[in-house]
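Posted in: Structural Biology > Protein-Ligand Complexes

Title: Requesting predicted complex, iron/sulfur cluster in pocket

I'd be grateful if someone could produce the 3D structure tokens for the following input. Sequence and ligand are given below.
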Amino acid sequence: MTALDDLLESCWAAAPCRPWPRLSVTAEQWRTAANELAAGRWTLVSLWAEPQIVHMSILEDSSNRIAILSLQSSHKDFPSIGRSHTPALRLERTIQDLVGLAAQDLPDTRPWLDHGRWKLHHPLATKPSQTHGARPYHFLPVEGPDLHQIPVGPVHAGIIEPGHFRFTASGETVVRLEERLGYVHRGVESLMIGSTIEHAARLAGRASGDSTVAYALAFARAVEAATEIEVPSRVHYVRAIMAEIERIANHVGDIGAICNDAAFALMLAHLGALRERVLRASMNVFGHRLMMDVIVPGGLVRDITSDGIHELLNMLNLIEASFPKLVELYDNTTSLQDRTATAGIVSPELARLFGAGGFVGRASERNFDARKSLGYSPYDMLTFDVPIRKEGDVNARVWIRIREVEQSILLIKLLLDTLPEGPVETVPHRVEAPCEGISIVEGFRGDIFIWLRIDAKGNIDRCHLRDPSWFQWPLLEAAIEGNIVADFPLCNKSFNCSYAGQDL
Amino acid sequence: MRKTLLASLIQGPLTEAAPRPDEKALEEVSEGLRRAARRSLGRSLAIREVDTGSCNACELEIHALSNPFYDIERFGLRFVASPRHADVLLVTGPVTSNMREALERTYRATPEPKWVVAVGNCACTGGLFTSSYACVGPVSAVLPVDVTVPGCPPPPIEILRALLALLVGMENDTPQNV
Ligand code: SF4
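-- Reply #1 --
Done. Output follows.
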């Protein structure tokens, strides 16, 4: 009997929540959860709060079961998870910023998203207060002889999202990297409160633009779980096709960009052209290059026509004809391998501790892929490989992406081949009482978690979105240690964490 | 490696014909342009991209401008690493409160003459984020905007058309006095 079984037996469900339960726990049980996380039996999926209540979603590793634990917090604070389980730290700092609930004895109480510049302080609290203006942010102290600091960002040299990196280096070697994020915080969760499901779906699709399909899918699935809508199987198939196209487009673009950062521009030119072909096919088939707003709760706004199937098959054939040659080029170019092999290593222990999703986790031996581990439709009926490596370096992350592109091509072909007939248009949702839904979807970057509650009128009461980047950003800090400053762009690109998705 | 290189030699370029500059954008820009700019810049523009709260999809499409299909550099348009080297700031996102100062400082660091192009609905109008406690609003709430490129995200071809309009507008700008 596991600790989760214990909880399931002894706790009452806090609300009707589907497909996994949300349990009301005591402070004691909350602490037990902290122990399970620290002991590595559970993985932290997310941690967030409402004005008087903190929620934690966990994954029990041995059984791949998910649950949300909710703790009433009457005194504006709650027992810290981050104290014993580091991955929770930034999430607890965020709870403090957004809701004003404090984690007790939190080792790091600096604000995370709140730079003191918003119109409101504690914007998600019952009564937000006036902001008190920007205060200086204290970076962690680094001491020692011959150390110097290099501040970078929020406006970077390349075309990338804003964030601040504080490098402490000894000569060329990075001794410590500290990230400061929050620059792209747009208040997505607050904008969703009270909005219609349709509007919230559009917001979710803009949490992180490169994962717009994955987010729209996760949001739709959460709404469908909450309102118990069964969508026709064709919808599942078309959605999965879109998700795999998004995965291919991002992986292909990123592999090119990683090689470019290792001064091998040829790969970027070829892979950039491939990515463009994928986006153009998406445009022709789904009416939008990135397939934004095509997946909606209850169905799809657009179906694949028989011409569309043709278009997609042509696109896949083109990739199959050129991608292997580029992979060969990557594999046989020593100057490139010289930069990517053994650079930016994430140890399997750290990847497991942080529950790192996607290729970051799988390049460091963490065998988790929501498509397989949790098995949602239609993936539960399909056979495909989840590539795993253990080196955890830039090279391993590149190879995981290469293998995933290959798997995605196979998956799309299989899905197109067996595409069931039937309608795809939206099934209307009927809501009579408040209900809650959870979903976890495998985006290109890793698992995206969404929990939401719909009120009796059918609007969004509260929605929480957790990007995989939350648990990958801290690993980037670890990966860069001991590497030279000049390798940072390379390492960073091999992670390609989302700023918008974590800042929200 | 040799095979790939050879194949690309024989294949013929992917690069497509130039699109026509956007009429609306042309109108917008021709007003605010000066002869001095034309003289100092010639037919080229250095662009500094600034993300002030984008979801990153606008960036992806700006990136695409450099792929072989659009090959933005053939028009004398190139992305630079520092605002100090830039003529144009290409801004995306509903300016977040946390990015406002960085945007203002980037603008101040850009030498005159300079232009601001707002890319995407968020940058043009604030998009879905207008009412947020964490956003200032469209780029025009912070800086004078010369050209707007709506879309969510605007496809690369639209961004290119707007930038070409900026170039053409500068050329058409008639000298006032010598
Ligand atoms: S305009 Fe659309 S694509 Fe661009 S940043 Fe805004 S939401 Fe993202």
